[in-house]
Automatic annotation (TrEMBL):
Gene Ontology CC terms, in alphabetical order: plasma membrane
Residues forming coiled coils: none
Its job: Regulates the proliferation and migration of oligodendrocytes, a process essential for normal myelination and repair.
Assembly, per entry: Interacts with claudin-11/CLDN11 and integrins.
Protein name listed in UniProt: Tetraspanin
Keyword annotations from UniProtKB, A to Z: Glycoprotein, Membrane, Transmembrane, Transmembrane helix
Amino acid sequence: MGQCGITSSKTVLVFLNLIFWFVIILLLVFVTEVVVVVLGYVYRAKVENEVDRSIQKVYKTYNGTNPDAASRAIDYVQRQLHCCGIHNYSDWENTDWFKETKNQSVPLSCCRETASSCNGSLAHPSDLYAEGCEALVVKKLQEIMMHVIWAALAFAAIQLLGGLCACILLCRSRGPTYKHLITGGTYA
């Protein structure tokens, strides 16, 4: 349709071809948004299982050194989310790091901000965050997923509304949809 319009200089066919491809692209974007919403809703329940598996693995590889990426990640999460361990601070007792250090303490990232003299010792549990990190990470990820789902739904609704408005405008228009730019005189 577009090739015929270009070769025969019929602007209406070129215009219709552009509209056709624009509609196809909009439909693909809309279908992608719907798929994101459906997959996000279906897999949001599976986030907890995946986080549990991953967090167990990362805690087992913790070695307390700054250059290690897993150790930095755990310390960062514990500081930012104000948590300690997987389920609580006692989870650290089962890690290789705890057994190797033999100092009966957890990482300093488990210390509450209000506890100025905290050294991570299990002898002073009131200085440590009581809540585990797994539940907080899952909650945070599910919040993010819900934001993505709502954003995709909002974009889809706006797209549908725009398509509806375009159809209404197209159906209301009477007569030719284009006019000649030059209505007389000579062409240069």
